[in-house]
Specification:
It is a single chain. By secondary structure, this protein is α/β, with parallel strands linked by helices. The chain folds into two domains: about 1-150, SPOUT methyltransferase, trefoil knot domain (Alpha/beta knot, 3-Layer(aba) Sandwich), CATH 3.40.1280; about 165-225, tRNA(m1g37)methyltransferase, domain 2 (Trp Operon Repressor, Chain A, Orthogonal Bundle), CATH 1.10.1270. It is built from seven helices and nine strands. The strands form three sheets. A five-stranded parallel beta sheet has the order 2-1-6-5-7. Strands 3-4 form a two-stranded antiparallel sheet. A two-stranded antiparallel sheet has the order 8-9. The chain is elongated. The chain binds adenine (ADE). Adenine binds near residues 87, 133, 135 and 137. Adenine (ADE) binds next to strand 5.
Length: about 220
Protein backbone atom coordinates (compact mmCIF):
# COMPACT_ATOMS: atom_id res chain seq x y z
CA UNK A 1 0.00 0.00 0.00
CA UNK A 2 1.10 3.53 -0.69
CA UNK A 3 0.04 6.56 1.36
CA UNK A 4 0.93 10.01 -0.01
CA UNK A 5 0.45 12.95 2.34
CA UNK A 6 0.23 16.55 1.13
CA UNK A 7 1.12 19.10 3.79
CA UNK A 8 2.46 22.63 4.26
CA UNK A 9 4.45 21.46 7.31
CA UNK A 10 6.31 18.34 6.13
CA UNK A 11 8.67 18.46 9.12
CA UNK A 12 5.75 17.60 11.40
CA UNK A 13 5.70 14.17 9.75
CA UNK A 14 9.42 13.40 10.06
CA UNK A 15 9.13 11.22 13.13
CA UNK A 16 5.97 9.13 13.23
CA UNK A 17 6.76 6.70 10.41
CA UNK A 18 10.42 6.08 11.23
CA UNK A 19 10.02 3.77 14.21
CA UNK A 20 8.64 0.47 15.37
CA UNK A 21 5.89 -1.21 13.39
CA UNK A 22 5.51 1.38 10.60
CA UNK A 23 9.26 1.44 10.07
CA UNK A 24 9.26 -2.35 9.71
CA UNK A 25 6.26 -2.23 7.34
CA UNK A 26 8.20 0.11 5.06
CA UNK A 27 11.37 -2.00 5.28
CA UNK A 28 9.33 -5.04 4.25
CA UNK A 29 7.92 -2.94 1.39
CA UNK A 30 4.37 -3.57 2.55
CA UNK A 31 3.84 0.14 3.08
CA UNK A 32 5.25 3.22 1.40
CA UNK A 33 4.66 6.66 2.94
CA UNK A 34 5.55 9.80 0.99
CA UNK A 35 5.33 13.26 2.51
CA UNK A 36 4.75 15.92 -0.12
CA UNK A 37 5.39 19.61 0.48
CA UNK A 38 2.53 21.65 -0.98
CA UNK A 39 4.88 24.63 -1.35
CA UNK A 40 6.68 22.72 -4.12
CA UNK A 41 3.53 23.01 -6.23
CA UNK A 42 2.67 26.69 -6.01
CA UNK A 43 3.29 29.21 -8.78
CA UNK A 44 2.92 32.17 -6.40
CA UNK A 45 5.88 34.22 -5.18
CA UNK A 46 7.65 33.21 -1.97
CA UNK A 47 6.05 29.74 -2.14
CA UNK A 48 2.73 31.19 -1.01
CA UNK A 49 -0.01 28.56 -0.65
CA UNK A 50 -2.66 30.41 1.35
CA UNK A 51 -4.62 33.64 1.15
CA UNK A 52 -7.26 35.68 2.98
CA UNK A 53 -10.81 34.30 2.95
CA UNK A 54 -13.27 35.97 0.61
CA UNK A 55 -15.89 37.73 2.70
CA UNK A 56 -13.38 38.47 5.44
CA UNK A 57 -12.83 36.84 8.79
CA UNK A 58 -9.91 35.50 10.74
CA UNK A 59 -7.35 33.01 9.45
CA UNK A 60 -5.96 32.03 6.08
CA UNK A 61 -7.29 29.52 3.57
CA UNK A 62 -5.16 27.15 1.49
CA UNK A 63 -5.64 27.97 -2.19
CA UNK A 64 -7.08 25.50 -4.68
CA UNK A 65 -4.37 25.98 -7.34
CA UNK A 66 -1.37 24.45 -5.54
CA UNK A 67 -3.60 21.60 -4.34
CA UNK A 68 -4.78 20.81 -7.87
CA UNK A 69 -1.23 21.15 -9.25
CA UNK A 70 0.05 18.69 -6.66
CA UNK A 71 -2.82 16.27 -7.21
CA UNK A 72 -2.49 16.32 -11.00
CA UNK A 73 1.23 15.71 -10.87
CA UNK A 74 0.86 12.88 -8.37
CA UNK A 75 -1.92 11.34 -10.46
CA UNK A 76 0.51 10.97 -13.35
CA UNK A 77 2.21 8.28 -11.26
CA UNK A 78 -0.61 6.97 -9.12
CA UNK A 79 -4.32 6.21 -9.31
CA UNK A 80 -5.76 6.95 -5.88
CA UNK A 81 -8.51 4.83 -4.39
CA UNK A 82 -9.40 7.73 -2.12
CA UNK A 83 -8.43 11.38 -1.68
CA UNK A 84 -8.96 11.98 2.03
CA UNK A 85 -9.14 15.43 3.61
CA UNK A 86 -8.38 15.48 7.34
CA UNK A 87 -10.76 17.91 8.98
CA UNK A 88 -12.61 18.24 12.30
CA UNK A 89 -15.94 18.38 10.41
CA UNK A 90 -15.35 15.00 8.72
CA UNK A 91 -16.69 11.57 9.70
CA UNK A 92 -15.16 10.41 12.96
CA UNK A 93 -12.44 7.83 12.37
CA UNK A 94 -12.89 4.38 13.90
CA UNK A 95 -11.54 0.84 13.63
CA UNK A 96 -14.07 -0.14 10.98
CA UNK A 97 -12.85 2.69 8.73
CA UNK A 98 -9.24 1.67 9.43
CA UNK A 99 -10.07 -1.91 8.38
CA UNK A 100 -11.72 -0.73 5.16
CA UNK A 101 -8.91 1.66 4.25
CA UNK A 102 -6.27 -1.01 4.92
CA UNK A 103 -7.64 -2.92 1.91
CA UNK A 104 -6.91 -0.04 -0.49
CA UNK A 105 -3.84 0.24 -2.65
CA UNK A 106 -3.16 3.96 -2.93
CA UNK A 107 -4.39 6.69 -0.59
CA UNK A 108 -3.81 10.43 -0.70
CA UNK A 109 -4.19 12.43 2.50
CA UNK A 110 -4.62 16.21 2.36
CA UNK A 111 -3.71 18.10 5.52
CA UNK A 112 -5.44 21.41 6.09
CA UNK A 113 -3.91 24.26 8.03
CA UNK A 114 -4.99 27.69 9.15
CA UNK A 115 -8.73 27.99 8.48
CA UNK A 116 -8.84 25.06 6.09
CA UNK A 117 -8.72 24.59 2.33
CA UNK A 118 -10.77 26.20 -0.43
CA UNK A 119 -14.18 24.49 -0.48
CA UNK A 120 -13.96 23.94 -4.25
CA UNK A 121 -11.14 21.44 -3.78
CA UNK A 122 -13.27 19.58 -1.25
CA UNK A 123 -16.25 19.61 -3.60
CA UNK A 124 -14.46 18.42 -6.72
CA UNK A 125 -11.50 16.24 -5.67
CA UNK A 126 -11.91 14.93 -2.13
CA UNK A 127 -13.63 11.54 -1.86
CA UNK A 128 -13.71 11.21 1.96
CA UNK A 129 -13.47 13.69 4.83
CA UNK A 130 -12.25 12.27 8.12
CA UNK A 131 -11.88 13.68 11.64
CA UNK A 132 -9.96 11.95 14.41
CA UNK A 133 -12.18 13.39 17.13
CA UNK A 134 -14.19 16.33 18.35
CA UNK A 135 -11.34 18.73 19.00
CA UNK A 136 -9.42 21.07 16.75
CA UNK A 137 -5.75 20.46 15.90
CA UNK A 138 -3.49 23.09 14.37
CA UNK A 139 -3.50 21.11 11.15
CA UNK A 140 -4.29 17.73 9.66
CA UNK A 141 -0.74 16.34 9.98
CA UNK A 142 -1.16 14.62 13.32
CA UNK A 143 -4.49 13.25 12.14
CA UNK A 144 -2.81 11.93 8.97
CA UNK A 145 -0.17 10.26 11.15
CA UNK A 146 -2.90 8.67 13.29
CA UNK A 147 -4.68 7.27 10.23
CA UNK A 148 -1.42 6.03 8.69
CA UNK A 149 -0.54 4.18 11.89
CA UNK A 150 -4.00 2.67 12.41
CA UNK A 151 -4.25 1.61 8.74
CA UNK A 152 -0.61 0.58 8.24
CA UNK A 153 -0.57 -1.92 11.09
CA UNK A 154 -3.57 -3.73 9.55
CA UNK A 155 -1.89 -4.45 6.21
CA UNK A 156 -1.44 -8.24 5.97
CA UNK A 157 2.10 -9.23 6.98
CA UNK A 158 2.85 -6.05 8.95
CA UNK A 159 2.03 -7.46 12.37
CA UNK A 160 3.43 -10.77 13.54
CA UNK A 161 1.57 -13.19 15.83
CA UNK A 162 2.68 -11.42 18.97
CA UNK A 163 1.25 -8.11 17.88
CA UNK A 164 -1.73 -9.52 16.01
CA UNK A 165 -4.52 -7.04 15.34
CA UNK A 166 -7.20 -9.67 15.95
CA UNK A 167 -7.08 -9.20 19.71
CA UNK A 168 -7.06 -5.38 19.61
CA UNK A 169 -9.72 -3.31 21.26
CA UNK A 170 -12.63 -2.49 18.89
CA UNK A 171 -11.79 -5.31 16.47
CA UNK A 172 -14.96 -7.18 17.53
CA UNK A 173 -16.74 -4.18 19.08
CA UNK A 174 -15.19 -5.10 22.44
CA UNK A 175 -12.47 -3.36 24.40
CA UNK A 176 -9.39 -5.51 25.03
CA UNK A 177 -9.18 -7.40 28.37
CA UNK A 178 -6.52 -6.53 30.99
CA UNK A 179 -3.03 -7.99 30.54
CA UNK A 180 -0.30 -8.91 33.04
CA UNK A 181 3.34 -9.92 32.91
CA UNK A 182 6.12 -10.84 35.37
CA UNK A 183 6.37 -10.78 38.31
CA UNK A 184 3.41 -12.90 39.45
CA UNK A 185 3.29 -10.95 42.67
CA UNK A 186 4.32 -7.33 43.08
CA UNK A 187 3.99 -5.85 46.58
CA UNK A 188 1.12 -8.24 47.30
CA UNK A 189 -0.76 -7.45 44.07
CA UNK A 190 -1.05 -10.79 42.36
CA UNK A 191 -1.99 -11.79 38.85
CA UNK A 192 -5.48 -13.37 38.41
CA UNK A 193 -4.84 -17.10 39.08
CA UNK A 194 -6.68 -18.22 35.94
CA UNK A 195 -3.90 -16.72 33.80
CA UNK A 196 -1.39 -19.02 35.51
CA UNK A 197 -3.62 -22.12 35.20
CA UNK A 198 -2.33 -23.24 31.80
CA UNK A 199 -5.94 -24.02 30.83
CA UNK A 200 -6.32 -22.24 27.49
CA UNK A 201 -10.09 -22.59 27.31
CA UNK A 202 -10.56 -21.11 30.80
CA UNK A 203 -8.13 -18.30 29.97
CA UNK A 204 -9.96 -17.47 26.77
CA UNK A 205 -13.34 -17.52 28.56
CA UNK A 206 -11.95 -15.26 31.28
CA UNK A 207 -10.56 -12.82 28.74
CA UNK A 208 -13.87 -12.69 26.90
CA UNK A 209 -15.79 -12.06 30.15
CA UNK A 210 -13.37 -9.29 31.08
CA UNK A 211 -13.65 -7.73 27.63
CA UNK A 212 -17.46 -7.76 27.85
CA UNK A 213 -17.58 -6.32 31.36
CA UNK A 214 -15.00 -3.65 30.55
CA UNK A 215 -16.96 -2.67 27.44
CA UNK A 216 -20.28 -2.57 29.37
CA UNK A 217 -18.70 -0.37 31.99
CA UNK A 218 -16.65 1.99 29.82
CA UNK A 219 -18.19 1.97 26.35
CA UNK A 220 -21.73 0.55 26.43
CA UNK A 221 -22.34 2.33 23.10
CA UNK A 222 -20.09 -0.22 21.36
CA UNK A 223 -22.42 -3.08 22.32
CA UNK A 224 -25.45 -1.50 20.69
CA UNK A 225 -23.77 -0.43 17.41
N1 LIG B 1 -7.54 19.01 11.53
C1 LIG B 1 -7.77 19.80 12.60
N2 LIG B 1 -8.43 19.15 13.55
C2 LIG B 1 -8.65 17.88 13.08
C3 LIG B 1 -9.28 16.74 13.59
N3 LIG B 1 -9.87 16.73 14.80
N4 LIG B 1 -9.31 15.63 12.83
C4 LIG B 1 -8.76 15.64 11.60
N5 LIG B 1 -8.14 16.69 11.07
C5 LIG B 1 -8.08 17.81 11.79
Amino acid sequence: MKIDIITVVPDLLNGPFSHSILKRAQEKELLQVNVINLRDYTTYARAQVDDYPFGGGAGMVIMIEPLVNALEQLQQQTTYDDVIFLTPDGNTFNQKMANQLSLKKNLLFICGHYKGIDQRFRDHFVTQEISIGDYVLSGGELAAAVLTDAIGRLIPGVLNDETSALTDSFQDNLLAPPVYTRPENFKGWSVPPVLLSGNHQRIEDWRHEQAVSRTKERRPDLLTD
